Amino acid sequence: MGLLITNANLTSATPGETGYAPSTATAIAIHNGLIAAIGDKKRCLQALSSTSTITTIDVQGQLITPGLIDCHTHLVFAGNRAREFEQRLSGVSYQTIAESSGGILATVSATREASEETLYQLANERLQGFKNNGVTTIEIKSGYGLTLADECKMLRVARRLGQQADIKVVTTLLAAHAIPPEFTGNADGYIDHICQAIIPAVANERLADAVDVFCEKIAFTPQQCRRVFETARNYGLAIKGHTEQLSNMGGSALAARLGAYSVDHIEYLDTEGVAALAACGTVATLLPGAFYFLGETQLPPIDQLRRLDVPMAIASDFNPGTSPIASLRTIMNMACTLYRLTPEECLRGVTIHAAKALGLDHDRGEIRVGMAADLAIWRLSHPAELSYCIGVPDLTARIVDGHYFPQ
Ligand code: NIG
Ligand code: FE
For site-directed labelling of 282, which of 41, 58, 100, 297 has its Cα 20 to 30 A away? Predict the structure, then answer.
């Protein structure tokens, strides 16, 4: 079956002239879930000549972009941290709360207690918020289980979410998120457990596509993260890191040199770190939601990243502690207002660069012949509007792997 879209205002996100300013009256031919042709209607029909049935959708000048990609979320968890939010507003820091067994560990308790079914229902409700924002691919991390059984439980939930036809899910093991109560005072012992038991089992069951760490004073040292990364690589898993969020530990350069797809947060990244990302082709993933929600003031080194042409992705970091914001569009706006990114950088940040942060840039994140037909159709006329307004229900439909899902 073929799908022919006509009269689109097309923003492909591909670097170059047509990547941003929309090209008008464009047709797109979709065959077997892939983009078969782009351009005038006649040529697109030709590309579909071998197909017996063709469905045509005239989008009447609406804007079409690649489906949005949220490349960093912690969507699966139970409970919430509204009381911690109140504590922080009265002046207690995120670090202090973490050190007194609150923070991440509070969500770990609630998540361990929740059944797999409950976690699925909770995450699925949140996922709807992202779909309503035009998201067609989402990354989901574990990291609130911190035992083999509970990390696997979270990852199974993420995999099950990905069985829905209208979303692609990439899963990431984040066992090195915090030191669990069973290993208090013995972070190295927990790292041993991650490397000897959790990563092998998760790899064996194919529950994760990548492995992440939290490299920070309140979490794990660069040496400990290196062990996790090396083990992950030995099991054929991709790596990425929560690095330089609250202080400069050198985690980003370490991750980049070991081949990380992305390093995320990076408010405290220094010049040497930026150079390492540039040299290694690592994506800098910016998470302005966490910056906003924690009331941070240290800005990531955006100008240096620009100067060295480091691809910048933007993601929600959706989680109960630092970014309970289930809206990638809001995050795009924050990237403009808080980090001074341009709307064009934001568009690339949630499409082509987000795809690269997930190792998916060979087939997602751009509207290009041969790539997966993942598209978002908007009642908008220019892609700058995606970063400009918040909360306006301007999405008409998403197309995922060539299947049409109206709003
Ligand atoms: O990306 N920095 C570490 N992890 C999450 C926060 C997790 C939490 O507080 O529950 C983040 O900000
Ligand atoms: Fe995160």
Answer: 297
